[in-house]
Amino acid sequence: MAQQQGTEVGPLVHGPCLPPGWDSGVSPRPCLAEEQHVNVLINNAAVMRCPHWTTEDGFEMQLGVNHLGHFLLTNLLLDKLKASAPSRIINVSSLAHVAGHIDFDDLNWEKKKYDTKAAYCQSKLAVVLFTKELSRRLQGTGVTVNALHPGVARTELGRHTAMHSSAFSSFTLGPIFWLLVKSPQLAAQPSTYLAVAEELEGVSGKYFSGFKEKAPAPEAEDEEVARRLWAESARLVGLDASRGSSVDEQPLPK
Ligand SMILES: NC(=O)c1ccc[n+]([C@@H]2O[C@H](COP(=O)([O-])OP(=O)(O)OC[C@H]3O[C@@H](n4cnc5c(N)ncnc54)[C@H](OP(=O)(O)O)[C@@H]3O)[C@@H](O)[C@H]2O)c1
Questions:
Q1: Beta-bridge mates of residue 207
Q2: Are 238 and 144 in contact (CB under 8 A)?
Q3: How far apart are CA 144 and CA 149, in angstroms?
Q4: Whole-angstrom Cα distance, residue 98 to residue 84?
Q5: Topology classification of domain 2-152+188-237
Q6: pTM listed for this prediction
Q7: Distance (Å, rounded) from C-alpha 158 to C-alpha 154?
């Protein structure tokens, strides 16, 4: 894509540019100011099925890291992504989103008993809904956004699951799992494909399983749920929801 345009691809933003919703508590604003062009943003980081932890900002950890952090970081970068167009945003979700449900009465797990699996599934459904709503908002800007399930890979994602914590499972199921799933390198390929494939130029608001476009879960296609989630996410992170790309400089809610 970049060679065709005769331009250089901008940096992949990750690591040090962590939004305040993440447990590092590092503000993204100073490092974001240094970047002049952002052509590709891959929102990849996640935590799965951790105990009932909260971020420094008081968000349930899986919602905070897997959705709200990416939501805020992406919005903080939107002006630069638009100025760098054509540019692409890739949101890494999971097949687990199909078991998710957005509970607007208790998005942050403050009322009901904590369920690590349901919290992960909700956060990954939120990623697909965010992708859909952002795509609608970005029409005509030259910035595309798609979500994907990378496939099951042998990474550290399962560190909080029983298979890792139980010696029996680790020794019996672990080797079988190891043989059946993808290497991290292979699992990274779909994200790279969505970031650079020429045939995906202009494709936006879609969900991919690996390299193939698929229909996401029915709740992920619900525009009303997506709009409501955007408004609620914006409220939680202190973003001006009506403008979509500028941030209210008020402190984040505790
Ligand atoms: N592995 C699978 O089978 C699978 C299946 C479906 C979807 N996915 C998705 O693929 C993506 C990559 O996961 P992975 O398998 O590579 O898992 P991983 O090995 O656990 O990597 C997760 C990454 O997220 C970062 N991260 C987690 N919590 C963070 C926080 N609070 N602040 C900043 N960074 C944080 C980690 O950084 P540190 O290393 O510094 O902690 C790490 O780089 C995730 O979105 C995951 O949901 C994976």
A1: 147, 214
A2: no
A3: 17
A4: 33
A5: Rossmann fold (3.40.50)
A6: 0.86
A7: 9
